[in-house]
Amino acid sequence: MKLYHAIILLIGTTLNVSAGWLPRPVHEVRAYVYDYTQEAGNVSLLKGGKLHKGVINPAGEKLSEAQVERLKNALRSRQKRVMGAFCYMPHHGFVFFDKKGKAMGHIELCFQCGNVASSPKGLPETEWGWTQIRKLLGELRIPILKENKDYTKLYEKKSGK
Fold this sequence. Notes:
This protein is of the alpha+beta class. Helices cover about 20% and strands about 25% of the residues.
């Protein structure tokens, strides 16, 4: 099966991820927004199974079955990538959890430059449907802000700093 078919809905809220992208079926997907500047030397949303220190919504926003399906479609959309600067300052991501609630992998996005990353590696990182993902984040009430400093301000406001 091709990599852009990496996420396939199975039954209910359980996903079956093929091509070896994740080690077990995905039970739940949550969306996050974060200020990557809160951890020196680390921009990754999920590292060693732990969320980035700068996560603004620590519980994440759980995606419904329909939203997971739309995310799946966006990840394999084969939409031509619109390039911006090569900054890679991600502020948004989705974490995939197993049935026991353990984070197995994630994707993260930089809306400023159009670069993305997945961990573990295995998803195509140049063809995601940005318009669909932007709409999905809007439905989840996750802000997409203009500048890095705006994410820092939001983090400080949410954390009481």
